[in-house]
Design brief:
alpha/beta; TIM Barrel; 281 residues; 8-stranded parallel barrel; homodimer; 8 strands; 13 helices
Chain lengths: 281, 281
Amino acid sequence: MPSFGERLATAFNGRGHVCLGIDAHPFLLEQWALTDTAEGLRTFGLRAVEAASGVVGIVKPQIAFFERHGSAGYAALEDVLGAARAAGLLVIADVKRGDIGSTIDAYGEAWLTPGSPLEVDAMTLVAYQGVGSLAGPLDRARANGKGAFVLAATSNSEAFPVQSAVLQTGAQHRSTVAAGIVEEVHAINAGDPLGSVGVVIGATVSFDDYGIDQGLLASTPILAPGFGEQGAVLASLPQLYGTAADNVIANLGRSVLKAGPDGLRGALQHEVDELARALAA
Amino acid sequence: MPSFGERLATAFNGRGHVCLGIDAHPFLLEQWALTDTAEGLRTFGLRAVEAASGVVGIVKPQIAFFERHGSAGYAALEDVLGAARAAGLLVIADVKRGDIGSTIDAYGEAWLTPGSPLEVDAMTLVAYQGVGSLAGPLDRARANGKGAFVLAATSNSEAFPVQSAVLQTGAQHRSTVAAGIVEEVHAINAGDPLGSVGVVIGATVSFDDYGIDQGLLASTPILAPGFGEQGAVLASLPQLYGTAADNVIANLGRSVLKAGPDGLRGALQHEVDELARALAA
């Protein structure tokens, strides 16, 4: 069974580094002439998958928008996840789950178990309770050929004080919180050309502000929000991520989704080509 | 409309400080002679609500166990939440959601909006992206008479390095991450006898290790995991939380749930009485 890292490398080689963020904002539903209902979200997600198929290799549904509609929203989500996986897309559930013990195990079971209703290829995780608290889903990911992305340095400015705080104890003491997570994930991926546990580092942040060593990202996939509406431009990706640029998944949501259901495919292709040129330069 | 803090104070006065954690661990489902299915979880949750009703004032369903079963699990959860609220229990959804902008707004909408399928009285939140990133659900809570609990110092040992890291910037610089969150929440609750934004501080941690000032918790509800199976005892609650003891919600899960569906009510009553004695002493 190929690992998630191996499957991600294949996706990079075949379809490039752009990921479509399936973000069913109420304003986009309206623009796409859909209702803000579970049924509207289902249609939105299925059309987004259709547009992404054959153009990008990765999609990232934002689960919060489905959760607004409770169990009916989750039923719509199941259909969207199934369609995306059937289309051969790598699916990253943006759920930002974090907890401890049997509870975080349950979240891992929900998203990273073959055959489960919400099965995806990878999920996002939050390590406020320590990277060690995430051992359950990280072990499960490895066993099942699945992946995970742990939030490190995110793209929003309110995050900076917490993520740049300095650890006083533990194996990463004197590192910032974000750099400590990068170090712990590096150790998990050691030995793999591209590992199965990634980190989230926003395209709007500076590595230096957190003391993050790009050399420790050599085997680590990087999920990168911040492009498009949040201000970063794809052409700058090689400068922003330096030696780690080839491991970056560049997420695009609103900035391409606003092209509408008929324009989305073309908008995505344009971005894929632009990023490929930038990475080849 | 009474605020969440006012409703919590009423619950404390009427039924004491114990909260039943509705934790549908697979091993408990088996012990309760239920299947590990959405239907089994529905029955587990409804029986737990029945046992809690009239004995405690607060329940805290752990959402992860429902999420394992996808949309069917969420449909079961909706029934459990509805039954709990109909029984007059304050319901805290333990979801530990955290994100930014319109995404965290969507989570707040899902759980803290009157009439939404997953409506509860309060939800748990994670501030890895900064307390400022949680403004959406915190504002929504205030507007709707709802509440929230932000993780500060949790009960698991792997959490200590991150939560004791020292902030280098921002209004709380030089505080630890956990103490900074306590300070920010204190400012939000200022002026209320008991505020509507709480923090999570485990019963297994020492305030001194994080530099948390108990005086800044005078108006802040404290959700306290760590009692029972995790090792802390209810009789020690006044010593553990000091001047903030009267604001504590003492969560009990496995340690009472293992009494089985018929023994749960009696086990809960025993703990309620024990804690009332300890707080009165």
